[in-house]
Amino acid sequence: MAKERVYIYKQYERFWHWTQAFLVLFLALTGFEVHGSFTFFGFEAAANLHNKAAWAFIILTVFTIFWHFTTGEWKQYLPTTKNLKAQAEYYIFGIFRNAPHPTRKTVLVKLNPLQRLVYLSLKILVFPVMVFSGLAYMFYRYQSNSTIHSLEVGSLERIAWTHSLGAYILIAFVIVHIYLITTGHTISSNLKAMITGWEELETDDAARKDKDPLKPQKEVVTNQPKNEAEKST
C-alpha cells in the first residue's frame, strides 16, 4: 500500500472540533464546581461562566448543523453495519497485534463504522439531552413582569441528575477519544491532521492511477500506432 497526502479536514471542521473540545472541557470544569466537587473560580463565578459557555456551545452547534447540511458532511454520520464487528475487534484485539485496519479512510468516508455510531449518538442523543436539561435547569425559575414563573418540567433534582449523567458520559468519551488519537500510523499523525487538515492516507496503485489527471492523454499516446505499417494493418 502506498500513501498520499490528502487535505481531509476543512478549515471550519477543524475550528468546530477544537472550539467544541474546549467548550466541553470548560463546561465540565465549571459544571462540577457548581456541583460542589471542588473550588476553583468560586461558586458564583463558576455558575456565570458555565452559563456563558453553554450559550456559546449552543451557538456553535447551530452554525455547525447549518454547515453539515449545506456541505453534505452530514452523510459522514450515516450508520452502517458493514465492518462494524471487524472494527470493534480491531480496537479490542487487533490494534495490539499490529493488525491492518479493517476500514480505509477517504475524504468521503472519514469515519469508520464504530465512530459513526458513537458520533451519531452524541449528536442526536447526548448533546440534545445536555442542552435541554441545561436550559431547563437554567430557566426552572425565571422572572417575567416582576413575577416568578416555573417551568412545568417535574423535579429539579431529576433534571440535575440527568445533566450530570450526560457530563460523565461526555468525559468518558473524551478519555477514550484522546486514547484513540494515538492509534494512527504514528502517535501524533491523527492530532496533526486535525491541526493542519492534511493526512497521509493509504491508497493502492490502481486508485493513484485513476486519479492521474494525465491518464487519458497517456493512454492515447500509448495506443497510437508507432509507424505507417501499423496504421495500414
Can you walk me through this structure?
By secondary structure, this protein is mainly α. It is 61% helix and 9% strand. It has one domain: Fumarate Reductase Cytochrome B subunit (Up-down Bundle), CATH 1.20.950.20. The protein is built from nine helices and four strands; from the N terminus they run βααααββααβααα. Strands 1-4 form a two-stranded antiparallel ribbon. Strands 2-3 form a two-stranded antiparallel sheet. α1 runs antiparallel to α2 and α4 packs antiparallel against α5. It is elongated, with a radius of gyration of 25 Å. About 7% of the residues have low confidence.
SS-based class: mainly alpha
Low-confidence stretches: 206-221
**Rg, Å, rounded:** 25 Å
Overall mean pLDDT score? 85
Order of helices and strands: EHHHHEEHHEHHH
Distance between the termini: 41 Å
CATH class: Mainly Alpha
CATH-level-4 superfamily name: Transmembrane di-heme cytochromes, Chain C
